[in-house]
Design brief:
By secondary structure, this protein is α+β, with helices and mostly antiparallel strands. It has four helices and 20 strands. Strand 13 and strand 14 form a beta hairpin.
């Protein structure tokens, strides 16, 4: 063993350079005395106290007293968090409102469209067009124009069907008709019409009553073509005019009772005038004249199905008038002297139809 150690020591010495510095020898290692080392118990107590101080410092830390750069930085951080929260809440509310509004609009848009499309018929008679619109609900509006001329608004009835008559324009023109239904939907109709007549004036139609007859009279400044009439929408009777005639008239017998007569006059251009009215077919009043037993009074007994209005008695040059009675049967007495007289009696109905008779006494 000593040999091996010796060899090792020898090798060690060979590896250490020779710089003329003394090597550490055994005499350089010596024990320290107590004054040089210090009190071992004092060092241990110092170590324990340092650990205790560190523990107290760690336990005192919390969110409120955690050390920061400064108090202003802490306030800014809290304010930023509150502002961000408010902005986020506002964004959520706005998005919610947008989504709700979009959903409501989509629900409304997907509802079936309400409409009441009118069924329209247009009939041309002469230089007039008759427009008939059929709908379930009342129309809101109806208007038309020819080509690009001024729009004309028509007055529509709240009842269905709605009928309107319009005049054709002269020449070749396009009718542009617009009908607005109850829900405000517009329907447009376009159709071409040709009118070669410059006469766009309707003829004139007149009806008068004379006793038990009606007199129908039609006239036009450009020339009358014909007229028609019928009772209670029955058979149509046509009365033709002569060539180059501007006036046409005819008489129609009245029948008993109330009836409706419709007359239509046509001019050469096809323009027409319609006249419809109720008339009562009546007869003239009936009456008898007699003398009383003493021949001192004329006795007039009159009757009428509709009513006697008045009785007028003329004896020679003397006239007697009764008051208006308006009764179906009346009796009137008029004094008369003896001798020869000429007598005229006239009885008038409430429709101003009169019957007159003449007598002579001796």
């Amino acid at each position: 063993m000593n040999q091996i150690l010796g060899n090792n020591n020898q090798n060690k010495n060979q590896n250490i350079p020779n710089n003329n510095q003394p090597l550490l020898g055994d005499d350089m290692f010596r024990p320290l005395n107590s004054n040089e080392f210090g009190d071992p118990n004092s060092g241990l107590e110092n170590f324990r106290q340092s650990i205790k101080d560190d523990q107290n410092q760690f336990d005192g830390l919390n969110y409120n007293n955690f050390p920061t750069t400064n108090s202003k930085t802490k306030l800014i951080n809290n304010t930023n968090i509150t502002t961000a929260a408010k902005v986020f809440a506002i964004i959520i509310i706005v998005l919610g409102v947008i989504f709700i509004a979009d959903g409501a609009y989509m629900a409304y848009a997907n509802q079936p469209k309400k409409e009441d499309v009118p069924e329209v018929h247009i009939e041309q008679i002469g230089t007039k067009l008759t427009i008939t619109a059929y709908t379930k609900l009342p129309l809101k509006a109806m208007s038309y124009r020819w080509d690009n001329e001024e729009v004309i608004n028509l007055v529509v009835s709240p009842l269905s069907p709605v009928k309107q008559e319009i005049r054709l324009g002269v020449g070749n023109k396009m009718l542009k008709l617009t009908i607005t239904d109850y829900y405000g939907n517009e329907t447009h109709y376009h159709k071409q019409y040709i009118n070669n007549y410059e006469d766009v004036t309707d003829p004139v139609m007149e009806i008068s009553q004379l006793n038990d007859k009606l007199i129908l009279k039609a006239s036009d400044d450009k020339g009358i073509a014909y007229l028609t009439y019928c009772w209670n929408d029955g058979e149509i009777v046509k009365v033709e005019a002569n060539e180059n005639e501007y006036e046409l008239s005819t008489e129609v017998e009245l029948e008993q009772g109330e009836k409706t007569i419709e007359c239509i006059a046509y001019d050469l251009a096809g323009n027409q005038c319609k006249y419809r009215r109720k008339v009562k077919a009546i007869n003239k009043p009936e009456f008898n004249v007699s003398l009383d037993e003493d021949n001192m009074q004329l006795i007039i007994a009159a009757k009428d199905a509709e009513g006697v209005k008045q009785v007028v008695v003329k004896i020679d040059d003397q006239e007697y008038k009764s008051e208006e009675m308006n009764q179906k049967e009346v009796t009137v007495k008029v004094p008369i002297s003896s001798g020869r007289h000429s007598v005229e009696v006239t009885v008038t109905s409430i429709y101003d139809l009169s019957e007159t008779k003449r007598y002579s006494t001796s």
